[in-house]
Amino acid sequence: MENLIVLDHPLIQHKISLLRDKNTKTKEFRELVLEISMLMGYEVTREMPLKEVEIETPVGVAKAKVLSGKKLGIVPILRAGLGMADGILNLLPMAKVGHIGLYREPDTLKPVEYYCKLPEDAEEREIVILDPMLATGGSASLAIQYLKEKGVKSIKLMCIIASEDGIKTINKEHPDVTIYAAAVDKTLDEKGYIVPGLGDAGDRLFGTK
Ligand code: URA
After folding, report:
1. According to the UniProt entry, where is the signal peptide (predicted)?
2. Where exactly are the structural domains of the chain?
3. Sorting pLDDT into bands at 50, 70 and 90, what band is 153?
4. What is the mean pLDDT of residues 111-134?
């Protein structure tokens, strides 16, 4: 598996264990997804370029650094990706947010697009796709393809749990995309759910089951 960064920080691992627990209720689940996304955001933004500036402090002038270069855009895949967006926006409130709506055709498990709205200047931004569960990789791959067709050149994929199959799919179809995952699980069941995973992230986030 290539282009994969697994964020195995103890705080993230602890919170993922709580997320996996079937007894974790909607409110706590939502808070955990937000907290994990914030912690992951720290690493996903590690290579953001800086420039030097001079800042007047109350006692002198400091040579300091501020973010510069390409601006960030985040693109949650609806609907479960929405749960991760606020975590990143807490860190980078100026990031623009696009949305891509995809559902999986139940028989074939193939993704079908039903909604897409991107920031106008998406192609000038560094885009981070948010999808908590990278299962077959089909939805994420289609979303990446779509962004590339719109001219986006720099894409990262951030998921909470990734399956080995999903990682292989992205590696094969988009070798230029780095995947950030907090955990990697081995298998998928016949419905395309990650095992052991955490169940349906959208249902657990929004209390729809
Ligand atoms: N989507 C989910 O919400 N969970 C999975 O296990 C796979 C895809």
Report:
1. none
2. 4-206
3. very high
4. 94
- DSSP assignment of 88-114 equals HHHH-TT-EE-EEEEEE-TTT--EEEE
Whether 20 and 197 have beta carbons less than 8 Å apart is answered as yes
Which tokens hold the place of 186? 């081995």
- State residue 202's pLDDT score: 96
- With a cut of 90, say whether residue 169 has pLDDT above it: yes
**For residues 160 and 185, is the Cβ–Cβ distance under 8 A?**
no
Establish whether 136 is an annotated binding residue.
Answer: yes
Question: Is the CATH number of domain 4-206 3.30.70.3450?
Answer: no
- Beta-carbon neighbour count of residue 123 at 10 Å? 16
Look up residue 116 and give its amino acid.
C
Residue 21, amino acid:
D
Provide residues with CB under 6 Å of ligand 1: 80, 133, 135, 192-194, 197, 200-202
Please tell me the predicted confidence (pLDDT) of residue 112.
87
List, in order, residues 6 or more apart from 93 with CB less than 8 Å away: none
Q: Is 199 within any annotated ligand binding site?
A: yes
